[in-house]
Amino acid sequence: MGRVSRRAFAAATFAALTPTPRASAAPRRRAAPAEMRGVWVATVANRDWPSRPGLTAAAQRAELTAHLDRAVRCRLNTVILQVRPTADALWPSPYEPWAHCLTGTQGRSPGWDPLGTAVREAHARGLELHAWFNPYRIAGHADPARLVASHPARRHPDWVVAYGGKLYYNPGLPEVRAFVRDAMLDAVERYPVDAVHFDDYFYPYPVAGRTFDDDAAYARYGGGFASRADWRRDNIDRLVRETAARVREIRPGTRFGISPFGVWRNAATDPRGSATRAGVQTYDDLYADTRAWVREGLLDYIVPQLYWHIGLPAADYAELLRWWAKVARGSRTKLYAGEALYKAGDPAQPAAWQDPAELSRHLALAKDHAQVRGHVFFAAKDLAADRIGAMARVVADHYRQPARPPR
């Protein structure tokens, strides 16, 4: 080997046999985790936005973008905006009037396009925009004369049921189901919304001593069912199936999700139910078989409203989270937990909600269930107020880095 030492020769040989990294190769950045981090923005009765009816278009737009900016600062990735609060619209709909919450006068143009602007501004900030619709609620009062004269409920009074001091479309009429579906999906045809979202209102919540008068519809269409309850559930199932199919047809890639009341059935009613003692059961009282929608894969995601604290005897958050995780296991439906941010720091709520760490504990608990893919917080006004710093605690404990929404 002449003057070359064995050690030098070995080193040279190893170097020759070892591939040299290409100069263009850069260290790989770890992809952001996929996790739903959402907030609801309710417009019904001006709950979250606009802060009051009758603001100028510029003021409404400024309030809306402030909500979007706040979501970004909290490292959220999804805004669920209520765009059809009371059978009226936050976009120029050919089916229904402009929403009352915008101008204070149903049917009056606000002078801008709130939904179109929301989609554009959300996407510019890296947020998803889910369009939230209430299918059957017409008004928070029982006087049809207070609706704008052109309202479909006034043109079709046979579609309407007055119940508990409010007005609803009758889910038992096929023509109603077709109308509300078309009215809602007009928004999907017009705008690149990331999802269609329903809340917990199907048949209305029970009111003691009152009867939802659908006798004529049941007599006409309910003959093939063992009970009125079965017929009502089938009406809601049809709306869900038909909406899911139409969303896929109109805008492939747009998802369909529902945020039901958190208790399907109590175990005392049905052994498949949760170990709860809730006063309302969606299957029996709202005629919404939410468990079946998940098991059958009808939905892209579900956000049960788990608006109770850990350890509540009648409806323990931990028990309901476990129950929903079991329901979602093996299905195509993604599970997110609906969180009661509005209760944090409310003096009317139990002691657990006076603890700024309660919500953070919810997110920590969810990490024990692989099926829970994120959380959605109710609602935007409470995100802004953050009375006792509960949301700040969630961000510090769980949202230190950005996350992309699950797809």
UniProtKB/TrEMBL annotation:
Protein name: Family 10 glycosylhydrolase
Superkingdom as given in the UniProt entry: Bacteria
Glycosyl hydrolase-like domain mapped to chain residues: 35-349
Pfam families named in the record: GHL10
Provenance organism: Streptomyces glaucus
Keyword set, alphabetical order: Signal
Gene3D superfamilies on file: Glycosidases
